[in-house]
Amino acid sequence: MANSASGDSMVHRLVRIIAAFDEEHPTLSPAELARRTGLPSSTAYRIVDELLAESLLDRDGQRLRLGTRLWELVSRGSKVLGLREAALPFMEDVQAVVGHHTTLGVIDQQDVLYIERLGSDTSTVNITRVAGRLPIHATSTGLVLTAFGSAEAQETFLRRRLPKLTDTTVTDPEELRRMLADIRHSGFCVMPGTIVPESTGVAVPVFSADGTAIAGLSVVIPREGGPVQASITALQTAARGISRALGWDGTLRDAIRRSL
Amino acid sequence: MANSASGDSMVHRLVRIIAAFDEEHPTLSPAELARRTGLPSSTAYRIVDELLAESLLDRDGQRLRLGTRLWELVSRGSKVLGLREAALPFMEDVQAVVGHHTTLGVIDQQDVLYIERLGSDTSTVNITRVAGRLPIHATSTGLVLTAFGSAEAQETFLRRRLPKLTDTTVTDPEELRRMLADIRHSGFCVMPGTIVPESTGVAVPVFSADGTAIAGLSVVIPREGGPVQASITALQTAARGISRALGWDGTLRDAIRRSL
């Protein structure tokens, strides 16, 4: 496949074009798109024409937006969709019982990526959003997935330099190592105020049929007076339901036993 | 951008690779992928390497799957995500009150594309699925969106040759034209048995803040004894809530007035 003079692959140029659209920029004019991608206008316009021909971009008056066809193509084959479809009814149960924001997240590269979120207007501050990312060390979902992940991923995580987001964000590797051991022992993670001071995250792991921790199920509750114990109980109950919906046969595998 | 000897654009070859993955084929070996796309192996493998480098494909052992990063890139900038996030709480309300499958669909190209679905295990047969398509003329969502769409789109639709899916699927243009007029008058569409004989679809339009019918909100109920009137009432109530969540200020614009 032809690479540009700068050595960029065609796929990389396409990624730059798709990534230029986001929640703050759902539509772009062709000139804005060229500017945001840093591609030469002629290159950007040529790729845009090909993307329009395949309905991967749609016209919105004089502006461009990601095509619904692109969402469809990606959603059909994506493991994200199967996971969130399995989880959604159980997330509704948690939200109904606990009454606060409920999220489902996975680890992707070096972040937590939230793939579903049920909000509550009357609850506390929650900055997660669907397809949004947060740092692993500052979120209950990130720590619970790391604690039940591979030893190798844990060591890689503990070697990284981690930013402090609030007064209570833990960044010391030895303290994090102790926290991970506690989470493996208890089966849940409670993180008060590590992203925003007024909220506490509570998370448990969700296991696939083969016992791999594939997602973190979490609620975000008020730090003062939030229902921590009820949240843990509701999350653990729902997480077993999601595993069963994913094909788990109900027998306790090692990883699941450790988390209960 | 370099085109292949066959004249295929690079973007078209990428689409063939992404489209090769679907619900039945969530993972493919490189050889299977080359076979399903019909691309020469050397071409397919070269594109796969570039997609792996950008995390648009992930390795799953010896097999390949669509990358979570691809879902993330597309979801962030997609109008589908904003629409389904606004609609989801109201869809839960409909499901709780009516007790049957609830779906949200849009028209894309010449089909209804379902972007969300809340299922019910105890209800009737419903073949919709998220990111799945059904024909416009056989679905309540398709007809309701056509009825409240542009006159031009209606004429294009009525000129198409339409397949008969069941005994009750209407394909005659003049009968369809009368049905569209009825839907504009009543504000809803009830379709008994046009996709599967034992189920009835009921749909209402969802309007954006500027009064455009952007989605159809629908329930699928049993054809015998299903709660048609309660479904219409619940759907109309929820559709107003979704419009408000999308920024509608509550004043009745023409299109919305016609639908109430």
Characterize the structure shown:
- 2 copies of one chain form a homodimer.
- With 260 residues, the first copy, chain A, is an alpha+beta fold.
- The first copy, chain A, has 2 domains: 10-74, Orthogonal Bundle (Arc Repressor Mutant, subunit A); 79-259, GAF domain (Beta-Lactamase).
- In chain A, 45% of the residues lie in helices and 19% in strands.
- Chain A is built from 10 helices and 8 strands.
- Chain A has helices spanning 10-19, 30-37, 41-53, 68-77, 79-98, 140-147, 151-159, 173-186, 228-245, 254-259; strands at 57-60, 63-66, 101-108, 111-118, 133-135, 189-192, 199-207, 213-222.
- In chain A, the strands form 2 sheets. A 6-stranded antiparallel beta sheet of chain A has the order 5-4-3-8-7-6, sandwiched between helices. Chain A has a two-stranded antiparallel ribbon with strand order 1-2.
- In chain A, a hairpin with a 6-residue loop joins strand 6 (189-192) and strand 7.
- The longest helix of chain A has 20 residues, at 79-98.
- The first copy, chain A, is globular, with a radius of gyration of 21 Å.
The most extensive interface, with participating residues per chain, is:
A-B, 56 and 56 residues
> What value does the average pLDDT of chain A take?
87
What is the helical fraction of chain A, as a range of percent?
40-55%
Query: At the third CATH level, what is the topology name of the largest domain in chain A?
Result: Beta-Lactamase
Would you tell me the structural class of the helices and strands of chain A?
A: alpha+beta
String of helices and strands of chain A: HHHEEHHEEEHHHEEEHH
GO molecular function, one term (chains A, B): DNA-binding transcription factor activity
Protein name (chains A, B): IclR family transcriptional regulator
Pfam families (chains A, B): HTH_IclR, IclR_C
InterPro entries (chains A, B): GAF-like_dom_sf, HTH_MetabolicPath_Reg, Tscrpt_reg_IclR_C, Tscrpt_reg_IclR_N, WH-like_DNA-bd_sf, WH_DNA-bd_sf
